[in-house]
Amino acid sequence: MSQEKSPAFPEDLCVTDRRGKDRRKRQIPVALERRSGKDRRDEKGERRRQIDPTTCERDYSNEEIEFMKAMDQYKRENRRPFPTWSEVLEVLRALGYRKVAEQTQMPGLSTSMPPKIDA
Description:
By secondary structure, this protein is mainly α. The chain has helices spanning 40-44, 62-78, 85-94. The protein has 3 helices and no strands.
């Protein structure tokens, strides 16, 4: 084994002592002060939490907001970030939804009817 020294690094490339050079303590002017003390989330209120990023800032109906709040409450209280379809149906029933009408065509681009379960 040879006892060769490793090549020395130039002092300007290797900083070993960082005391006294804390950039956070310097007063550097900024173009726009973003730390105003109030949280930007406060401006939008609770509604912001209900916005689905895939639909942008779509206006939800009261029924949709009620359902989303109920699902959010269920997920938080039961620690279930991804509820099963059975759990979603339980939340719908807890909201008072019952099947009272005949089936209609599926929503969206579908041209078919929902599947029927023979009971």
